[in-house]
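If you are new to this repository, start here. Below is one unmodified record pulled from the training split, so you can see the exact layout before writing a loader.
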Amino acid sequence: MNTNILIVGVGGQGTLLASVLLGNLALMKGYDVKLSEVHGMSQRGGSVVTHVKISDDTVNSPLIEKGDADVILAFEELEAYRWLPYLKKGGEMYVNTQQIMPMPVVLGQAKYPEDIMGTLEENAGAVNTLDALSIATECGSVKAVNVVLLGAASKALPFSEEEWISVIEKFVKPKFVDLNKEAFAKGREA
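And here is the target side for that same chain:
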């Protein structure tokens, strides 16, 4: 297996926990894994991206080049749009339909792009959209968007549902385990 996954979002959405869960699950299954996190003013709502490379062989570089991502997990529409050039031809996207206005848009200095979903659908192999924010809220916390998206993408990855639950139980704080297990299940159903 050689799989390159970009996890993209806005600071505070839980992209880093998602990469920790995915990376540790792959390690537990015996794959070589490299993660590279890029924080762009993440605590102030800036763009955050994590490169996750999983392989049967040695992974030499943690960074995914343009056109090499098999899967993009996008926690927000504009981030999906920004990182689209990194998706390989025929690659798959999982996109939370939430829109978070960046500061230039809020200040009236820029416009939020129109028809992002149309652009994604024209250029990606498959675009799976879901309202992960509503699902997470239904589970009890907006912070569970990350695990909802992992649940949605889990069927495209070679790990069983039980293995995903195991990694959630191991790496999520105990008081949030049940909430995250529910979020994962609902994302998987979505």
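Two things worth knowing about this chain: The chain has a mean pLDDT of 90. DSSP finds eight helices and six strands in the chain.
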